[in-house]
Design goal:
Elements (H helix, E strand, L loop, with lengths): L8 H15 L10 H66 L16 E2 L2 E2 L3 H13 L4
Antiparallel strand pairs: 1-2
C-alpha cells in the first residue's frame, strides 16, 4: 500500500510508526531513519534537560535550607554577643564601684582597724583580699 505524506492516512501511519519505535527500544540508531534518530535524540535530550533542571532545583533547595539555618545560628550568636557585652559592662560597673572602696589599693587607710572578719580584726593582706572579694560578690550598701 502506498501512502503519500500529505494524505489523511499519513498521520495514522506516522503514529503507528512512532508506537512501533517506542515498543522496540532495542533498535539501534543505525537502523532508524535520520528523522527518527533526530526525534529520539531530541527526546533523550529533553529527558536529560528535565533531569538536570530537577537536580539544579533540588540543589538550590538544599542551599536555601542551609542559608536559613546559618541565618538562624548567626542571629543566636549576635544575641549571645549582645548579652556578653551587657555582662561585661555590668562587671566593669561593679569593678569601678568597688575600686573606690578597695582596701588593697589603699592599704594605709584608717578604717583598716575598724574592719572585722567575724570576731577577728583584719590583720593581714589575705583578710583584706577576702573582704574585697566578698564586697564584690555581696556589695555593701
Amino acid at each position: 500500500m502506498l501512502i503519500f505524506m500529505n494524505s489523511p492516512g499519513a498521520d495514522l501511519l506516522s503514529q503507528m510508526t512512532a508506537e512501533d519505535d517506542s515498543s522496540q527500544e532495542t533498535l539501534s540508531d543505525s537502523t532508524l531513519k535520520p528523522s527518527d534518530r533526530k526525534t529520539k535524540r531530541r527526546e533523550r535530550n529533553r529527558v536529560a534537560a528535565q533531569k538536570s533542571r530537577k537536580k539544579q532545583t533540588e540543589r538550590a533547595d538544599v542551599l536555601h535550607q542551609e542559608l536559613e539555618t546559618l541565618e538562624k545560628s548567626n542571629l543566636a550568636y549576635l544575641k549571645e554577643i549582645e548579652n556578653l557585652k551587657k555582662e561585661i559592662n555590668h562587671y566593669n560597673d561593679v569593678l569601678r564601684e568597688h575600686e573606690s572602696k578597695c582596701l588593697l589599693q589603699n592599704p594605709d587607710a584608717q578604717d583598716l582597724n575598724m574592719l572585722h572578719l567575724g570576731k577577728n580584726e583584719v590583720t593581714n593582706e589575705m583578710d583584706i583580699l577576702s573582704l574585697c572579694l566578698s564586697d564584690l560578690i555581696y556589695p555593701v550598701s
